[in-house]
Amino acid sequence: MENLPDCPQCNCKYVYSDGSGLICPECNFEFQPSDVEEKVYKDSNGNILVDGDTVIITQNLKVKGASSSLKKGTKVKNIRLVEPEDGVHDISCKIPGFGAMMLKTSIVKKA
User: Fold this and answer.
1) CA 5, CA 97: separation in Å to the nearest integer?
2) Residue ranges of the domains in the chain?
3) Is the dihedral angle over the CA atoms 104, 105, 109, 110 positive or is it negative?
4) Which parts of the chain have pLDDT scores under 70?
5) What pLDDT is attached to residue 2?
6) Where is the Protein YjdM C-terminal domain (predicted)?
7) Distance (Å, whole) CA 41 – CA 78
8) 49 pairs with which residues across the strands?
9) What would be the CATH architecture of the domain defined by 1-38?
10) SS3 35
């Protein structure tokens, strides 16, 4: 099965190919695969991040509900880049001692 992009208009994941183009069954939007741009995630230094990278936190972070904060220099392994639901946090990761957490790309650097 092909890995087709989501609809750029309504974000529907059920896009199908119709010969030379792609069609969204929910909003009937027709588009070309070349029209869809891949989002590029960059760290605070401008390095490109990909899934599975290891990053280092560049500033101390207060964590809601935790008695301590995340210290500058904490290494986070095996990050997962996600489309931000809240428009801000685009890294999903697990931090030892804190658990699952969402981070911003602007506060990490590639290790």
Assistant:
1) 36
2) 1-38, 41-110
3) positive
4) 1-2, 36
5) 61
6) 42-111
7) 15
8) 41
9) Single Sheet (2.20)
10) helix
